[in-house]
TrEMBL record:
Source superkingdom: Bacteria
Xref: InterPro entries: HAD-like_sf, HAD-SF_hydro_IA, HAD-SF_hydro_IA_YjjG/PynA, HAD_sf, PGP-like_dom2, Pyrimidine_5'-ntase_YjjG
Gene Ontology MF term list: 5'-nucleotidase activity
Cited Pfam families: Hydrolase
Name of the molecule in the record: Noncanonical pyrimidine nucleotidase, YjjG family
Length: 229
C-alpha cells in the first residue's frame, strides 16, 4: 500500500516498539521490594495502568507538569488502594522508577525483525512524547538505537504529540516530506490523528486491543507492517 510512496518511516517508541507495560511492571516489582511497599503488584497495576494513561493525556494537553505527572500518578493509585505512603516515599519511588525503568529492555514481538526488514529500504526515525534522558536509555539498552536516523522527543520540540510542531520538526530533521512519510504508533489521538493532521500517512498498531476505526489501517502485530511496506 505504501511501498511506492514512502521514503521515511517514523515510529512511536513506548507501547509500539518498546513494551512499556511489561518493562514498567518489572520496574515496579523491583522498586516495591527495595522500598518495602507491601502492595500486591497485580492489584497496583490494575489501577495504575489506566491512571497512567489518564495522567499522560493531561500531560500531552499541557494541563499538568512533568513533576506533577510523576507524583500524582502514584499518589492517586495509593489513595485508591487505601495504602498509606508518605510524600517522601512517593517521591523516592518516582525517582527510582525513572532510574530503573530503562534498565529493562523487552520489546514487542517481531520488533527487531521488522526493523531489520525496513532498515535497508527506508530511513527510520522515532517521534516520542517520552522524556529525553529516559527514552535515549531505552533505545540503547534494548539495542535498537542504531536503526534510527533521527530521534525526536517532546522536550526537544517544546510540544507533545499530537501538536503539529513536533511532526514538522521531525520532517525537517529527517529532511523528509509529509506525503512520503509514514507514522506508526499505538495512540490514536497522539500518533495517528496528529500525524495525519501534519500530512503524514499513518498505520495504527493496536497494542491495547482498542476499538476499530476508519482513520487508517490497523495492525495487531508489528510483523504485519510487511503487508504495507
Amino acid at each position: 500500500m505504501f511501498k511506492d510512496i514512502v521514503t521515511d518511516v517514523f515510529f512511536d517508541l513506548d507501547h509500539t516498539l518498546w513494551d512499556f507495560e511489561k518493562n514498567s511492571a518489572l520496574t515496579f516489582d523491583k522498586i516495591f521490594r527495595e522500598n518495602r511497599i507491601e502492595v500486591a503488584l497485580p492489584d497496583f497495576l490494575e489501577v495504575y495502568i489506566p491512571a497512567n494513561f489518564a495522567f499522560w493525556k493531561l500531560f500531552r494537553e499541557g494541563k499538568i507538569t512533568k513533576e506533577a505527572l510523576r507524583y500524582e500518578r502514584l499518589k492517586s493509585v495509593f489513595d485508591d488502594l487505601k495504602y498509606q505512603v508518605s510524600d517522601e516515599n512517593i517521591n523516592n519511588l518516582s525517582e527510582d522508577y525513572i532510574t530503573h525503568l530503562s534498565s529493562f529492555n523487552h520489546l514487542f514481538p517481531n520488533a527487531i525483525s521488522i526493523l531489520e526488514y525496513l532498515k535497508p529500504k527506508y530511513k527510520l526515525h522515532i517521534i516520542t512524547n517520552g522524556f529525553q534522558e529516559v527514552q535515549s536509555k531505552k533505545l540503547k539498552n534494548s539495542n535498537i538505537h542504531g536503526y534510527f536516523d533521527q530521534i525526536i522527543d517532546s522536550e526537544m520540540a517544546g510540544v507533545k504529540k499530537p501538536d503539529p510542531i513536533i511532526f514538522n520538526l521531525a520532517l525537517n530533521k529527517a529532511n523528509a516530506r509529509p506525503e512520503t512519510s509514514l507514522m506508526i504508533g499505538d495512540n490514536l489521538e497522539a500518533d495517528i490523528l496528529g500525524a495525519q493532521a501534519a500530512g503524514y500517512h499513518a498505520l495504527h498498531f493496536n497494542a491495547h486491543q482498542g476499538p476499530k476505526h476508519d482513520f487508517c489501517e490497523i495492525i495487531d502485530d508489528l510483523y504485519e507492517i510487511k503487508t504495507f511496506l
